[in-house]
C-alpha cells in the first residue's frame, strides 16, 4: 500500500470524509429532505397569510394603484341588518316630515323604488319632528343606521337633512364606511323622489354615480417583507440545528478525536463539511426561489432571479458558518435543538426591530449599523425589506440585477443596498468560519486537551514540522477512516 503525505493525503482524507457526510445524509434522509423542502411548507404559510391580509384590505384601495376608479351608481338603501353590531328588531331608516301631507307619499316612493330591494313598510318608522327622532334613537341605540328629515316649504320647494352615525367600526378585520354604505344611498333616494314629486313625473330618470379620485397606492404592504424574515429564518434553522448536532455528535462520541490522533488534517475535516453543507444550502436556496415563483408572489416574479437566489444562498451559507462557530461551544448533541431555538428567538426579535427601521436610517449612527449587521438575520431582514418594497404593488417592477448597487426611488433613507448586504453576508461568513477553526483549537476537547491561544503564530503550525507522523501512523489513519466510514454505512 502506497503511503501518501502532504496535499495528496489531505485530498484523500477530504474525499473520504465527503463520502462519509453523504452517507450520513442518506442514513438520515428524512432530515435531509426536511432541510431541502422545508421552504415549501413555510412559503405555503406565507401564501396563506398573504391571502388573509389581502382579504382584510379588500375594503380599501389605499394599497392599490387606482387609475380608472369604478363608479358607484345608484346605490340601494341596504337592510339595517347589514350594519355591524346592529340590534334587532331594527329599521332601515327613520323619517320626520313636520306634519306635511306630501311627505308620507314621498317616503312610500323611496321604499318602493329602492333599487333591487323594495323596503317593507314595517322596516320604516315615521315621526313628526326631528326631536322625536332623536329621542327614539337615544332610547333605542344601534337599531337604525340613519334618518331623513323633510321640510315642506311650498309647492316647488322642499328641503331635507340626513342623520347617520358617522363613526366607522370594524368587525373581523373589515371596516364599515357609514358614508358610502348608508348616507349616500339615503341621499340619492331622497333627491330622486323629491325631484319626481316636484316635477310631477314619477318616471323622471335619475342616475347618479360616485367614484373616488384616481391615485397611486398611499399605503404599501409586502407580506414577504413583513412576515418573510421569520419564516425564511426558520428554513435556515433546520440546516443550522442539523449541522450543530452532526458536529457535536462526532465530538461527543470521540470519532473526530480518534481520526485526529491518527493524522487527520483539520483542513480536510472542515472543508468536507463545508462542501457538503454548501451543496445542500445551494439546493435549498434554489427550491426556496422556485417555490416562491410557483405560488406567484410578486416578490419572486418581479425581482431578479439572480438577486433572490444569491441572497438566500448567502444567508443560509452564513448561518452555516455561524453554526460551525456555535458548535465549538456545545458539548452535548442533545443541546443542539435548545441552542437552535434560542438563536431563532433572538433572530426573530432582532429581525422584528430591523423591520421597524432600526438601525438602517439616517437617524442612527454608523456604528449601530456596523454592530447590528454582524448578526446574519438582521441584514437578511433588511434585504427582504428593500426587495419587498420594490414589489409592494402589482405595477412595481422590482429590482433588476444591474440595480443591486443603486438606491431605489422609493427609499427615503438609502443607507444600505442589496450589493452591500451581499458583501456583509460573504465577509461575516468567512469571519464565522475562521472563528470556528480558532475556537475549535483553543477550547478543550472531551479529554481536556487544547492548543495555545496564539497557536497560529507558531511556525510549526504552518510548516507541519515538529509533529511529523511516521509511516505506521499514516497507515493507521487510513484504517480509522475506513472503519468510521464502514460504521456509518
TrEMBL record:
Record-annotated membrane-spanning stretches: 33-53, 231-249, 270-295, 307-331, 338-360, 421-443
GO molecular function, one term: ABC-type transporter activity
Record bears the keyword Nuclease: no
GO cellular component, one term: membrane
InterPro entries xrefs: ABC2_TM, ABCA
Subcellular location per the Swiss-Prot or TrEMBL entry: Membrane
Membrane topology: Multi-pass membrane protein
Keywords: Membrane, Transmembrane, Transmembrane helix
Residues of the ABC-2 type transporter transmembrane domain: 221-438
Pfam families from the UniProt entry: ABC2_membrane_3
Main location: membrane
Top-rank taxon, per record: Eukaryota
Protein name (Swiss-Prot/TrEMBL): ABC-2 type transporter transmembrane domain-containing protein
Organism, as annotated: Aegilops tauschii subsp. strangulata (Goatgrass)
